[in-house]
């Protein structure tokens, strides 16, 4: 089973806004119950080119006043780049971001905790990955 988590950089710190994240860390989950473990497979760049990835600390909001075909296509790139994933962990995701994942069969798992470490987050949420 593959799980994506939005991350700020190669330090694998969780990035709460899935649609504006600079990167996605893709993990494979193995085992079951208390023997579940997560192995980092790869880090993928967010393929959207309509947002500024150089300032990940800025408070990004998606402007849906212009939900034209190109704007929606920018979101859809994320779903396609993660299409091998079963789940994605998110704190925030706009309607187009959520749709980009669900249209590829990727289930969204909400995270509201305080941790920024992706492996800790995955372990906290491990019971939600079936």
UniProtKB/TrEMBL annotation:
Alphabetized SUPFAM superfamilies for the sequence: Nitrogenase accessory factor-like (SSF53146)
Organism domain of life: Bacteria
Record-linked InterPro entries: DiNase_FeMo-co_biosyn_sf
Protein name: Dinitrogenase iron-molybdenum cofactor biosynthesis domain-containing protein
Source species: Malaciobacter canalis
Lineage summary: Bacteria, Pseudomonadati, Campylobacterota, Epsilonproteobacteria, Campylobacterales
